[in-house]
Amino acid sequence: MTITKIITSITMLAMATIIAPTITQAASHGGNAAVKKDKMAKDAMMKKDEMAKEAAMKKDEMAKEAAMKKDAMAKDAAMKKDAMAKDAMMKKDEMAKDAMMKKDEMAKDAMMKKDEMAKDAMKKDAMAKDAMMTSDYVIKSGDSLWTIAQGAYGDGAMWTKIMAANSNIDADRLIVGKTINLPK
Fold first, then answer.
1. What is the three-class DSSP state of 114?
2. pLDDT of 85-120, one tens digit each?
3. Which of 46, 87, 160, 172 could serve as a FRET partner for 63 with CA atoms 20 to 30 Å apart?
4. How far apart are CA 89 and CA 92, in angstroms?
């Protein structure tokens, strides 16, 4: 129900409450009835005006309260919006930092792997060069890689060098007559 309808209803109720008994009294008094009727009508009009003023004041007060609530709600919404924007910005910054850290970490890992691969390649190259600088040896009965290394290098512990250059042999089962490479 709108404020205007409420005011109209209150006004009509007040007029009915004031005028009806007054008219009834005027009719029962006979001679002064017209004078009393006019006075009562004036009193009723004054009462009506007074009630209309009160209703208008109430309406204005309610409108002010509604405007204040609206402003408060707008401020709350703006504050929430600002807070959400700040949160979003902080999350964005955090995600960017995390991404940069992961990128740096991945770059370091890649660099380390590259270095490892380069070292492995260098080792393989060195082993290949060593393998290329070999002499042939034919295995005899009673030979072991230890005795062959002792004879070729003067150190039996160098048998691992012979093993590395001959990956196709079994150190525990040397085949007599097989030719192996002795790296230099």
1. helix
2. 999 999 988 999 999 999 899 999 989 998 899 888
3. 46
4. 5
